[in-house]
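At this stage, I wrote out one protein, both as residues and as discrete backbone shape codes, and that material follows here.
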Amino acid sequence: MRPMDFLGSVIVVLGAVVLVVSVRLLFNRSIRKASSKSFPYHRQLLTFAIVLLGLFLAIGLLPIEHEVKGQILSLLGVLISAIIALSSTTLVGNAMAGIMLRLMHEFRAGDFIEVEDLVGRVTDFGIFHTEIQMITRDVVSLPNMLLVQKAVKVTRRGGTFLHVSVSIGYMVPHEEVEEALREAAETTGLTDTFVFIEGLLDHAVKYRVYGLLEEFSERLSKTSELHRAVLDTLHAKGIEIASPSVMDRREYPSDHAYIPKRRMQERVSENQAAIEELAFDKAVEAESIEQLHQAETKLVQSLESLDENTTDKKAAKQQREKIEGKIKQIQGELEIRKEEQAEKKESGE
């Protein structure tokens, strides 16, 4: 290659780099606005598009023969096509699945989800994978393609129905059983309770009691509390949780019931919310950070609408200063949270 051609190539490459950086800085505010909850990957995709455009411009302006340019562009096109073709089994596939999940808004940080045998709360929702924290405080990383291919059960934040099934012998009137089950559900703080008779088995009737839990974060502890309340209430009312076909080597009178002989005592209510806060500490922290991001986005949007719709300059200025102060406060809180997360990650917590 002649010195002039080499110098021209260097100038073209440097010009492309300067162009990419300039466009990136020019649209920095637009990219930041685009990185909202509706589509949080505008920043990455727009940056990738700018870099790709700069690459094509650099190739097109290189002082080389047109035939060589065509070969280079063809090779680049083949590489991009190969990446797209292999996207179903590669990282690109997980990235596409992550974008799809973001667009669908099925769940977000802090939500309870169930995927196959895994139950936990979302702690991190990345472009390639999603992390959920189990009741054991362990964190499981799931590829986003798995979440697209498998059924995902999401616990609604507005409330969910907890339920427990139990089989009672035919000798007990169903009215008594239904009343006892509703009473057990109500003692746990559940509302809108009801009972279904799900089946008439060979030697027992299968009941299922439902109750609405309004605070979704207490789901696991309330489920355990509901099981406990069903046991205590049925035993306190003399209702035996066993079918007549139960066989025992010990001899009992014909009217004996399998009920604990200990005296039923009033159970002291426990602060079950602390269990979830301890088990899902990372998920709770991720949820709070997500709420801060949402609050920041709403304030930025209100600031933009203020500039467009307000005619009173003085009032607009005061309102702007107030909103900007709140934004700075949220940003400061986010910085503190991120530093705490980084410290915990380094210490292995």
Q: What stands out?
A: The longest strand covers residues 191-200. Residues 313-347 form the longest helix (35 residues). The domain at 106-154 is CATH 2.30.30.60 (SH3 type barrels.).
